[in-house]
Design goal:
It contains 2 helices and no strands. The chain is mainly alpha-helical.
Length: about 100
Amino acid sequence: MPAIESACAALERGSELDLINELVTGGAVAASFTAAASVAKARIEATTQRRKNELDAEVQREQIASQERQAAAHERGETARARLSGGATPPPASTDA
């Protein structure tokens, strides 16, 4: 059966320099692990945000390029229609009925 430690013995053991050093060291190690984890998390988040920004910029470039291609195709279509119609612009639609 394990012996039950008296309150006086627990206080005395708790005030031993080796135990205090062990607790302080353990706390420092735990704090350094926590700090290292925080730094690693911040690096991952920064890398993720940077990559997201790059992808967002690439999407925007592709959208602009697509709009430019659509505008060029539309312009070619208008030019072809103008050639077929003899270069004249069609008269506006009449509202007289």
